[in-house]
Amino acid sequence: MTEQEQAHVETVRQALELVLARHDSTRLADFFCDDAVVQINERRLEGLDQIASRLDWIRANRPQVSLTIERIFFQGDRGFDHHTTTLSDGDSHASTIKVFGYIEMRGGKVALYEDVSIALDGRDQLSEATGIQTT
Q1: Burial class of 60 by CB neighbour count within 10 A (0 to 12, 13 to 18, 19+)
Q2: Alpha-carbon dihedral of residues 9, 121, 64, 37, nearest 10 degrees?
Q3: pLDDT class for 12, splitting at 50, 70, 90?
Q4: 114, 30, 15: which is closest to 67 by C-alpha?
Q5: Which of 3, 32, 4 has the alpha carbon at shortest distance from 16?
Q6: What are the phi and psi torsion angles at 41 (to 5°)?
Q7: Average model confidence (pLDDT) for the chain?
Q8: What is the DSSP letter of 19?
Q9: Phi and psi for 47 in degrees, rounded to 5?
């Protein structure tokens, strides 16, 4: 792995742990380009404001989040991550979601993060992250 690829891995690891797992929108600009696109299944968020709004909603509605990173790897400025997220309201509602993400970097920051998520368990399942309602 090149130094640049290793730097991308570390940036994405920090973005997942510090921004996405904590749903901390105040740190978005540290790791994401101003015009970043985050695609979660069919939900497309364009720019830091839309991404921040979604993170703020998740934090308000699912304040307990745990994230386990399985792997992150890059070839040049393109890479993938695989992680598991558990979202909980701290009471009786929890959803475990398996995530596989495609990433494009620009200028040392995330320019595109497209993920495919599938719920492993939990009520409301995919709607937690994506808006997909299951029946």
Answers
A1: exposed
A2: 40
A3: very high
A4: 15
A5: 32
A6: 50, -115
A7: 86
A8: I
A9: 85, 160
Whether the Cβ atoms of residue 94 and residue 104 lie closer than 8 Å to each other? no
Question: CB within 8 A of 125, min separation 6: which ones?
Answer: 95, 97, 119, 132, 134
Instruction: Mark residue 26 as left, alpha or beta (left: phi above 0; alpha: psi -120 to 50; beta: remaining).
Output: alpha
In this structure, which amino acid lies at residue 2?
Answer: T
The pair of structure tokens assigned to 94 is: 């929890």
- Domain ranges in the chain? 3-128
Angle at 124 between CA 123 and CA 127, to 5 degrees: 150
Length of the chain: 135
Q: Write down the pTM of the prediction.
A: 0.84
Residue 17, phi then psi, degrees to nearest 5: -75, -40
Confidence at residue 132, expressed as pLDDT on a 0 to 100 scale: 44
The tokens 């921040």 sit on which residue?
Answer: 52
Please answer whether residues 129 and 40 qualify as being in contact, where contact means their C-beta atoms are separated by less than 8 angstroms: yes
For domain 3-128, give the CATH number.
Answer: 3.10.450.50
